Amino acid sequence: MKATTPEEEAIIALQGTLRDSILESKTPRPRRVYIRVKPKANKKAVSSLLKTFPATIISTITGIDVGENIEINYHFWSGKTEVTIRTEIPKSKPEIDTITDIVPGASLYEREVHDLLGVKFIGHPNLTRLLLPESWPKDSYPLMKDWNPEHVGSLDASLEETLTIGGIEKNGGSLVNVVVGPQHPALHEPERFLFKLDGEIVVDVEPRLGYAHRGIEKGAERLMFFQDVHLVERVCGICNVAHTTCFCQAVEALGNIEAPPRARYLRTIVHELNRIHSHLLLLGIAGLEIGFESLFQYIWRDREMVLDLTEKLTGNRVMAEYSTIGGVRRDLTSTLGNEIKRGLKKLKDRLNFYREVLQSDPTIELRTKNIGILSREKALKLSVVGPVARGSGVESDVRKHDPYAAYEEAPFDEILYKDGDSWARLMVRLDEVDESIDIILWAIDNIPGGPFRTRVPRRMPEGEALSRVEAPRGELIHYVRGNGTAYPERVKIRSPTLANIISFREMIRGCYVADIPAVLISLDPCFSCTDRMAFIDERTGRKWVWSMRDLKDRRRA
Amino acid sequence: MMLEGNFFFRTLIFPGFLFLFLLTLFCDWFERKIMARMQNRMGPSYTGPFGILQPLADYIKLLTKEDITPRHAKQFLFTITPIISFSIFMLSIFCFPIDGVNIFSNYGFEGDLLLVLALVTFAHFVLFLSGWSSSNPYSGIGAVRIVTQFIGYDIPLIISTLGPAFLARSLSLTKIASSQNIPFAILTPWTFIVFLISLQAELEEDPFDVPHAETEIVAGYGTEFSGRKLAFIRLSKDTQIIFGAALAATLFLGGPYGPIPSDPTSLWFIIYFVLKMLFVIALLELVEAVCARLRIDHIMIGNWRIIIPAALISVIITVLSSPYIKPLMEAII
Amino acid sequence: MRLIKMPQMIIEVVSAIFKKPFTRQYPFTRPDVPERLRGRQIFHPERCISCGLCARDCPAEAIEMVDVNGKKMPMIHLESCIFCYLCVENCPRNALTESTIYELASASKEALALKPEMPKQKEEVAGDSENVNI
How far apart are CA A156 and CA A543, in angstroms? Predict the structure, then answer.
C-alpha cells in the first residue's frame, strides 16, 4: 500500500479508516480526487483527512439537488491536492452531522447550504440564515430544481432583524451595541456589522451578509455555457478576470478541451493586470480609511495607467470580457506588448516610492502596526486564504501550489510576512504588485506563437469539474457540473472574501473603535463577491417578486 | 463709544461682518485649491473664474435643501447651537487689528488676548452641545471627541501664546502685533511650531481629524444637520479656520504691519494681514496633506506627554533668551 | 507619537503644487480612445439575413427582432446591453460591426435603442440631437 502521489495517499488513508463506508473514489485529473462516502461517515472521513494532511483547509461545501436526494460535497485543499468528500442524503429527511467542531472554518458554508437548500446540520452552533433576508418564507429553498419565483409571495419588510441576531444579546451594563451599516461611509458595499463595545474597545462582532445578493448561481442554470461566462464575470467588478478565467477553465476541463498555449499566456497577462489594478485600488482605499487622503489620490492616479493598458488590450477598462471557453477573444500585437512593458516599468519606479512611504511613515505605522493581529494557528484553523493568510505566514497561493494557465513556467516568488497585523497584509499586496509586473514582463517576452482560440461546441458532456484560481483576494473556486446539454446543471462559486470574513472577528477583538475601518480594509472585503445569490430587494419596501419576464417588460416600459 | 454711522459701517460692512464673511468664502476656496494642487488634481474650477465662487454656490445650495430635525433631538438646542457657534467665532475675529485698529475703532484693551481665547473655548462647548442634542450615536461620539480633544489642546495653545505676550510685555493683541519689527516666528521659532501644532488640533484638521472622521463616525457632531443648519455648521467651521489663521498672523507674523510703499496705509494693512493669513492656511494644509489620521488615544497621550511639556519648555526658553531677543525687536529694518 | 520628518512625502507633495494637474477636463478636452474600445455596435441592414442568432445568444436578452418592411431585424436595447460583442462575433454575415462610439447618454429610454432601418436611409446615430458632437 505504497502511496506515490498525494491523491493516492488521500484515498488510501481514507480507505484505511473508513473501510466499507467508502462507496467509490476517482481521480479524473491531476490534483482532483472525488470520494463518495456513506452519510453517517462524513465526520470520520474529514477527521481522517485532517490527520493525514494537517495543513488542510476547507474550500467550500456544495449542495446539489439530484432528484430524490441532495448531494453534499465537501471540498478540501490539503496542501498538495484537492479532495472532495461527497455524500447523499434523502430529501425527505435532509439532516447530516456538522463538521464545525473539527473544522471551524466550515460554519458559514453550512449556513449557506442550510439557507438555500434546507439541509439541517446537527450540532451547528448557530444555524441561522446567511444570505436570504429574514422575511423570506420558511420553506422556500431557491436552489431546488422545482423552485419557482411564484412560490414567494409578498415579503413583509417589517420583519426586520432585531438586535439579537446570531447570539449577541442586547444587554445592559457598560456594553453598547453599535450597528455599522448597511449604509456607512467606511463600507464600499453594503453589509451589516453588529459591534459589541466596551467604551472604545471592541468585544465582539457579528457580520450579516446578503445585501448584494443577486441570484447568479441560480441564473447560471438558465443560460448556456458560453453566455454564463459573461454572467459569472459580473459577480465582482474588480476581480472579474479571475472569475472568467476560473469558469472557462472549469468548463474546459468538463468538456476535455485544451486551450492553446498562447491563450494560456494571454490569460495570465490579463489576470496579472487585473491583480495589479485590484491591489492598487485597495492600497489607495486603505490610505483613505486611515485618513491619508494624499496617498489615496496618488495611488489612484497611478492606477489609471493600468486601466488604460487594460483598455488597449481587452477593449474595456474594468470588465475585461477577455477569456472565453476555448481561449481568449483578442490577440496581443507586438506594439501593444512594448507599450505595456513601457508603462509597467514606469509603475515599478512609483512603487518604490510607495514602499518607502508605507515602511517609514510614522502615522501609518501608528495606525496599522500591531493592529488586528491574526496568528498563524488561528489562520489555519479558520481556513483563511489570500493575502490575509500570507500576511500571517500561511503558504496559500494557488498559483504556486496548484498551477494553472502559464504559472507553471513563470518564475515568481510567493510573498510571505510573519507579523499577521494590518501592516503586513498591506505590504503583502504591495510586494505582489511588484511580482505581478515581473510576471507580465516575462510573459510578454516568452509568449508562444500559434492560435489564440479554438472553437468549441455548445454542448458539454456529462461530468463535473472543479477549478481554482488565485483571485486578488485569495483562492476562488468554481465547481461546474454538466448534464449533456448546453445548459449547466449546477454552478457553484465560492469567492475568497467569504472565507476571510470569519477571521474579522478574531482580528478585531480588543481593538479600538477607531481601528475598525483600518482592519476591515486590510481584509479587503468584496461583498459583491461574497453574496452572489439573491432575487429580491426588500430594503426599499417593495413587496412583490419580479420574474425575468417582468423585469424585461419593466425596463422597456 | 459713540454710535455713529462710521461704527455701523465698520461693524457690518468693512472690515466687519460682510468683509469677514467674504473672506471666509475666499479662504475656503484657497484651502480647497491648495489641497487639490498638492494632490495633483484641480480643485474647484468651473464656478466663476478659477472656481472662486464655488463656496458661495455651496452655501446657496445648502440653503435650498430641506431642513430636517430628528424627532428625538432637543429642538431648541438643535436649532440654536449652529447659529451661536458661528456668532461666537465671528465675534472673536472682531477683536483682531485687521487694519491697524480693530473693528470698534480702538486699539482694544489690555487682555483682549484672553478674551479671544475664552470665547473660543466657549464656542467649542457649544459645538459639543450641537452634537449632544442630536440624539444620534455617531453625533454623540463626535461630540465627546470634540470636548476631549479641545480640553487637552487648549492648554498648550494658551501656554504658547504666553511667549509673544511676554516679549511684547502686553496682553493686548494690537500691542503684540505692533511690537514685531521682525516677526516672532523668526525670533522664537520653537514657540511658533508648538503653537501651530496645537492650532491644528484645535481646528480639527488632519492629523487631529478625529471629531469628524468620515470613515468612522459618518460626520461626527454634524451628522444630523441638514439644510440651513448645516450651512451654519460649515460656516462656523470655516470661520474657526480664519480665526486660527488670524491669531497666528497677529501673534507670530506681525499682524497687519509691514513695509508700506504708499498711502493709504490702512489698505496696505489689510493686504498684509490677509496675505499672512493665507500663508498660515497654506502651512496648515501642507501638514494636513502629509499626515494620516491619528487615533483618539494617540492624540491624548501625545498631548499630555509631548505637547504640553514642549509648550512649557518653549516658554521657558523664550523667557531665558529674551535678553538676546529684545535688541532684535527694537531694531528697525 | 513621534514627530519625525517624512522627507519623501513632503517633497512629493510640495512639488505637486507646481506640476500640471492630472485631471483631464472633459468635455472640453476629449481623451484618445484606443482603437478597439468596445463601443456601440453599428448595424448594416443590407447584410442581415434574419437568422436571429444575435438575439438568441445575447446573455442580457437585449436584442429584439422587430419587423422592418417585412423582414425581421435586430433592435438592440442599449440600456440592457453589456457590450460583450457576442452578437458581433457570432453574426454569420458581419452585419453588426464594432465601433468606438462611447458617448451614449440620452434623455429618454426610447432614444437609447439601436434601431434597424432599411438600406436606403442613411444610418442615424441613436439620440444624436441630444448628444455632444463627436
Answer: 7
Model pTM score: 0.86
Closest Cβ opposite residue C22 in set B40, B294, B299: B40
Is A357's Cβ below 8 Å from some Cβ in C?
A: yes
DSSP output for A15-77: HHHHGGGEEEEEEEETTEEEEEE-GGGHHHHHHHHHHH-TT-EEEEEEEEEETTEEEEEEEEE
Q: Phi, psi at residue A274, to the nearest 5°? A: -65, -35
The answer to whether A269 and A322 have CB atoms below 8 angstroms apart is no
Write the pLDDT tens digit of every residue in A41-55.
888 888 888 888 888
- Those residues of chain B that have pLDDT short of 70 are 1-3, 107, 211-218, 331-333
ipTM for this model? 0.84
Residue type, A295: L
Radius of gyration (C-alpha) of chain C in whole angstroms: 22
Neighbours of chain C (3+ CB pairs under 8 A): A, B
From the candidate CATH numbers 1.20.1250.20, 1.10.357.10, 1.10.645.10, 3.30.70.60, the one assigned to the domain spanning A216-531: 1.10.645.10
Nearest to C2 among A308, A315, A362 (CB): A362
- Can you read off the three cell numbers belonging to residue A492? 457553484
For A344-388, what is each residue's pLDDT tens digit?
999 999 998 889 888 888 888 888 888 888 899 888 888 888 899
Grid cell 426599499 is found at A540
DSSP-derived secondary structure letter, A453: B
pLDDT at position A507 is: 85
Cell readout for A276 is 495589479
Nearest CA in chain C to B306: C1
Instruction: Choose which CATH entry (3.40.50.150, 3.90.550.10, 3.30.460.80, 3.90.79.10) describes domain A6-144.
Output: 3.30.460.80
Of A227, A330, A357, the CB nearest to C9: A357
Please state, as a whole number, how many other Cβ atoms lie within 10 Å of the Cβ of residue A395.
Answer: 12
How far, in Å, CA of A494 to CA of A42, rounded? 21
Establish if A66 touches chain B: CB-CB under 8 angstroms.
no
